Target: TolC family protein
Amino acid sequence: MLRIKSPYILGFTYLLCLTGFAQTAPGNPVAEPATLSSPAHRNPNERGPVLRLDSILAAIDAGNPQLQTYGNRAASLRATAEGARSWMAPMVGAGTFMMAYPRSYIMEERDKGSVMISGEQAVPNQAKQRAQVAYQRSRASVEEAGRAVSFNQLRAQAKQLYYEWLVGKQKQAVLIENQQILQTMKKLADIRYPYSKGSLGNIYKAQARLYELDNMLLMVKAEIDQKRIGLNTLMNRPKTEFFTIDTTLIIPKDLSLSEVTLIDTALIAGNRSDIRRMDQTIRSMYFGIEAQKAERKPEFRIRFDHMSPLDKVMPNQFTAMGMVTIPIAPWSSRMYKAEVKGMKYEIQAMQKERESMLNETQGMVAAMQTELRNMNQQLDNYRERVIPTFQKNYQTLMIAYEQNKEQLPVVIDGWETLNMSQMDYLNRLQDYYRMIVAYERELEK
Model:
């Protein structure tokens, strides 16, 4: 954390406390604003556990409703696969057999006909059933791979919210510290005003800057509240449930490489869940092809009929039949042949899409490495050059103001420049963290 500490400021603050100017100084034409860091602005109910990033990710993995849908879909497909082993329902019937119409002339008793009971059962081909079971189970594997894709997206969202919250806490600390510094400058101006050592306009200007800082703190607090709501939503917890984050988290900064390194596509394919899902989809389509090819195999059907004659002369009779389908007939084979041909073309298209995704990811990762290296250099420049230089400029102006050699507006301008550089650094740091999240999302780290 970048902090501004000057022995002159500390000395003047101590002097103000001793002389009773810690509150409003006598003759002060402008009252002190209530700050967000004061007890009046603290919410006593804002107490909750400190959640680490890995704990939040584990809660998302276990409780996010979007991820739970994939498990239910996979279970549904497995249940459907078990149903593929079933047989068709048997058919039974009852009726008449060779019975004469009413009012017909019957020459012999046997011409009265018979009462018939019939039963029929289709016998499925087990090879077809095994092919359908394998195909349905492979579709369940595709759903499970889809869960990993969704979790990678949710994990990236959680990381981004967590890192932005972390930067927000740093912004709060910088703003509160700058608020204390500006209050010290205003109190010095209040002390000098009765002795004609300062102008009333300077006091109002300092007061206006304090109000601006109050607004900035309100805005940062609102952003932190939004991040908390977002994380609670991802974890499927009450949206307003209060918790804090681990501000000691060290975000890895070894991603900004000294030179661009092309990641092997085999490594990308092994890490990326969307590539694995596509591999599972292609594998499932191969099972689908085998299931369609199994349609060439015949199916069987058996039928049994029992006849009881109405006369007392003829014996009971029966018929038993076995039937088999002929799916290789030209007029019936067109359907599964067309399905197999279409699936093969679909597999070729998905293989090309997989190759395109790997190529695009490899190029995107290389571009992100370049951007990360550039952003890291900019942040180093801010930490080592820009902010220290503005800090020295402000301290020099403050010393001159304490010695009555400079005016308060000039000191405020120097302080504003330092404050803007600090906030600009934190905004760039937040962009850097976002780039890290995007980089890790592409490689699924």
About this structure: Confidence is low (pLDDT under 50) at residues 1-45. DSSP finds nine helices and six strands in the chain.
